[in-house]
Design goal:
Layout: H1 9-20, H2 24-37, E1 42-48, E2 54-59, H3 69-72, H4 99-105, E3 108-114, E4 121-127, E5 130-137, E6 142-148, H5 155-158, H6 164-181, E7 186-191, E8 194-198, H7 205-213, H8 215-219, E9 221-228, E10 231-238, E11 250-254, E12 257-259, H9 262-272, E13 284-289, E14 295-296, E15 307-308, H10 311-328, H11 345-355, H12 357-370, H13 378-382, H14 386-390, E16 412-413, E17 416-417, E18 427-433, E19 437-442, E20 445-450, H15 451-466, E21 472-481, H16 485-493, H17 495-500, E22 504-509, E23 512-519, H18 527-540, H19 546-561, H20 571-583, E24 597-601, H21 602-608
Helix pairs in contact: 1-4, 2-6, 6-7, 9-10, 10-12, 15-19, 15-20, 16-18, 18-19
The structure holds adenosine-5'-diphosphate (ADP) and magnesium ion.
Length: about 625
């Protein structure tokens, strides 16, 4: 190796540029973020050939004064922070002052900008970071930056660039994310002459989500919000039935900045445990508002990663927001308030909290249980022991309502009274359709309850409650079960888990297993089929956590034990089911994510028959 020398400015600039501008999408991101910081209400991004031929970003923001324009292209030149202290409370998207310098170093760049109140603007052009021209120009208020021939002087970087469509796709995701982050700004994206995205910029997150993600996707989302230890979370999360095949549709924004955060993703998914089908993932567009002093956006040059000073609070806030949507289910849709995150946030938030108190309450109960705390709603489920539920004819006893505080008596949630349980119900069972759906008239609602799904969920919750002391039934004649080889290993590995659930089973030799006792809810005739399904679950999900394996197995048992669609049940059984579904906010989905309840409004029916318009 030779002597140590300081790199000349040109080489140093190219290296620094490489850190900020990896690909066309990074340039798009930096330029559009500058427009956001400039207070624009309209931002148009135009790209040609994936951004390699041209990127043009036009905004109607504050503009730059002619004297300042050259400085904007200097490294570490920024108008956004002044001192070390400012670094602690960053509210702008940019602050490093290196984006324009970096993009300019590796392209031919031109800027037109005019500030309001000035008669004239300026045009400024650089090639490879060197000034080519500067002159007064007539242009609209705001700033336009045109980047041509990106990476023309860095052939090494060019090698890492993918096909135009791939690059264009990346650039489009950047704009989509910014649009979701800033519902108050109208974003337009033009790709090779075609407008592919245009958000209204009306300040409503829902409008932005609709424009960016489309109507079908949006209809699978539920609006939600929560506040926890000073952290506000609002936005949209999947209805459990609308889980996605992967995690790519989980969008988080912290203080308006799109971020990647495994922590927040985990919190979201935790809320869907046992409410979503296996291998499905919730989608979300969630905004998190937190004091800038307790987040560190400085960890990554591209600033997409983020660190929270108090991980636990951020986790809980997102968990609670998602959980209340999962528990609230369809009914929550009836309680939508104008989604205006920027204006009146506090007011609508307070309103939300009041109206949705029961949902919040049940979410809290779940959280308690998770951390091993109080009984919450658990005690409520437990009241419905299997024998009582299965008793024919006799009306089930009135169920205790200790789970709900008297303060909530008058609160109506989705039309259901959640306070005192009246001796005479306000609802009436009209009958059962196709021996599958119990039909109930409840005030102005016509409710359809999937009896299998509802029963399954109820049993599942009770089994979880009983986990510490499972009820087991000894078989008169032990069952000998011979699984496939791989499945045998999986079963033997998780034998302890099976025993915890009430199975008494052990290896019998010759590749088989002898089962002497079953969980109390299972019918002896179901023993083999249940074991078969459990074996498959355990084999296919070897790497699942013990908790997930347990939940998965319990949900299989619950499914087997639940009354079947098509079965004939007594009026008492119908009543017991309806009572629980209508009274408890969070029996909205079976453990596999299918809905338990579907509601048709009286008005919907009246519209169908032309009684009202
Ligand atoms: P940073 O955004 O980190 O401050 P940049 O290199 O991206 O650094 O921009 C340098 C400066 O140029 C900004 O601080 C801002 O003052 C100004 N600037 C850049 N783009 C715009 C724009 N679209 N409108 C107004 N000012 C801009
Ligand atoms: Mg910037």
């Amino acid at each position: 190796m030779g002597r140590i020398i300081q790199l000349d400015k040109h080489v140093a600039d190219l290296i620094a540029a490489g850190e900020v501008v990896e690909r066309p999408a990074s340039a798009v991101k930096e330029l559009a973020e500058n427009s956001v910081d400039a207070g624009a209400t309209g931002i148009t991004v135009e790209i040609k050939r994936g951004g390699l031929e041209m990127i043009r970003v036009t905004d109607n923001g504050g503009g730059i004064s002619p004297e300042d324009v050259p400085a904007a292209f200097l490294r570490h030149a920024t108008s956004k922070i002044r001192s070390e202290r400012d670094l602690e409370e960053i509210r702008s998207m940019g602050f490093r002052g290196e984006a324009l310098a970096s993009i300019a170093a590796v392209s031919k760049i031109e800027m037109f900008t005019r500030q309001a109140g000035r008669t004239e603007g300026v045009s400024y052009e650089l090639h490879g970071g060197e000034e080519v021209s500067r002159s007064p120009a007539g242009c609209p208020v705001g700033t336009t930056v045109i980047v041509r021939e990106l990476f023309y002087n860095t052939p090494a970087r060019m090698k890492f660039i993918k096909r135009d469509v791939t690059e264009a796709g990346q650039a489009a995701s950047v704009v989509r994310r910014l649009a979701l982050a800033n519902p108050g700004i109208s974003f337009k994206l033009i790709k090779d002459g075609e407008t592919v995205l245009h958000t209204p910029g009306d300040g409503l997150l829902k409008s932005a989500v609709y424009s960016v993600c489309g109507g079908t996707f949006t209809s699978g989302l539920e609006e939600t919000r929560a506040e926890h230890e000073g952290i506000r979370v609002y936005g949209f999360v999947s209805k459990p039935l609308y889980g996605q095949g992967n995690r790519t549709k989980q969008e988080f924004f912290v203080n308006g900045r799109p971020v990647k955060s495994p922590l927040l993703g985990a919190a979201l998914e935790e809320a869907y445990k046992n409410s979503i089908m296996q291998n499905r993932f919730p989608a979300c567009v969630l905004h998190v508002e937190i004091s800038p002093a307790v987040v560190d956006v400085n960890v990554h040059p591209a600033k997409t990663e983020i660190k929270f000073a108090y991980d636990r609070s951020a986790f809980d806030a997102v968990y609670l927001a998602a959980k209340s949507a999962v528990s609230g289910g369809d009914s929550a849709a009836e309680l939508t308030f104008s989604p205006s995150p920027k204006s009146d946030f506090q007011e609508s938030y307070e309103q939300a909290r009041l109206v949705r108190a029961p949902a919040g309450n049940s979410a809290g109960g779940t959280a308690d249980r998770k951390s091993g705390g109080g009984s919450g709603n658990g005690g409520f489920y437990k009241e419905m022991s299997a024998p009582e539920f299965r008793s024919d004819g006799a009306l089930p006893g009135v169920v205790g309502d200790s789970a709900f505080s008297p303060a909530l008596n008058q609160v109506s949630f989705g039309g259901y009274k959640t306070g005192d349980i009246p001796l005479v119900e306000e609802w009436r069972i009209l009958g059962e359709a196709f021996s599958t759906y119990i039909i109930v008239e409840d005030g102005d609602d016509l409710c359809f309850i999937d009896k299998h799904a509802a029963h399954e969920r109820i049993i599942f919750e009770r089994l979880k409650e009983e986990a510490a002391k499972p009820v087991s039934q000894v078989l008169i004649k032990p069952v000998i079960f011979t699984p496939e080889r791989g499945e045998l290993t999986a079963l033997l590995n998780d034998m302890e888990l099976l025993c915890d659930m009430g199975f008494d089973a052990e290896e019998f030799g010759g590749g088989s297993i002898i089962v002497r006792a079953l969980p109390g809810d299972l019918d002896g005739a179901d023993a083999e089929a249940s074991l078969q399904e459990i074996a498959r679950l355990l084999t296919e999900n070897r790497r699942m956590s013990v908790q997930d394996k347990r939940d998965g197995t319990l949900s299989l048992v619950a499914c087997k034990a639940a009354m079947k669609a098509g079965s004939i049940i007594s009026y008492a059984e119908q009543r017991a089911l309806v009572e629980r579904v209508l009274r408890i906010g969070d029996i909205k989905y079976c453990p596999h994510g299918r809905p338990v309840l579907s509601v048709m409004k009286k008005s919907e029916l009246e519209r169908k028959f032309g009684r009202i318009q």
